[in-house]
Amino acid sequence: MAPGADWTAVRTAFMGSLGVRVRAILALGIVLGLGAVGTMALWSNSAGATSGDFKTGVVDLRVNGVKSYTFSGATGLSMTNMLPGDSRAATLQVQNTLSTLPLIYTMTARTAAGSPALTNFLRMAVFASSAPTNGTTNGLATGSCGGPQLGTAMLQAAATVPVITAAQPLGTTAETNTQNLCFVVTLVPATPLSVQSQTLQSVTLTFNATTT
Description:
Structural class: alpha+beta
Number of domains: 1
Strand order of the largest sheet: 1-2-9-4-7
Number of helices: 1
C-alpha cells in the first residue's frame, strides 16, 4: 500500500464486501432450511368398515297350494242344466305361505274370446268364508256363503271384470298368511230364453298381488 494511504477506507471497503458475502450465505441457509422442512414425511393411517348382506324378498302368492288351480268334482265351481235363479257355491284358499314379504291382492274374472251370450247373465260374488252351502229351494239350486262379501260383478263375454277391488292383506305369519274365499255364481232370474243350451267353458280368476 502506498505511503499515506487511508487504512480506514480500505478496511471499510473490505469489511463491507465480507459483510455482503456473509449475509448472502445466511440467506441461502434459510432457504435450504425451509426446503428441508417441506419434504418431511407425514404420519398416515386408515380404517375400514364392512356392510351386512343385501337380500331380496320373495313374493309367491298361491291358491290351494298351487300357482294354477282348477275347480273340479262335487265341490267345484261348475253346474249343468242351470235355470234362471240357480246358483252354485265353492271355496278357495289364497295363500302367502311361501313369501317373505306381506302383500295385498285384488281379483279379476276373465272369460275367453268366443264366450257365449250366456256369460253376460252370470253374476259372481266373493265372500270371506270357508263354508259354502249348496241346496235346493223351491226347485232352484241355491249356493250361499257365510261371512262378509268382498266383491261382486256381472261377468262379461270375452272380457275381464274386476271382482275384488278392495285390496285384501296377507301377512307372513301363520295367523295372517292365508284367507279363505267362498264364491257364488248365479244365473240371474232375468236371463232370456235366447241363451238356452249355451255353455260357458270356464272363467279364469286372477289374483294380483303387490307388496305392502
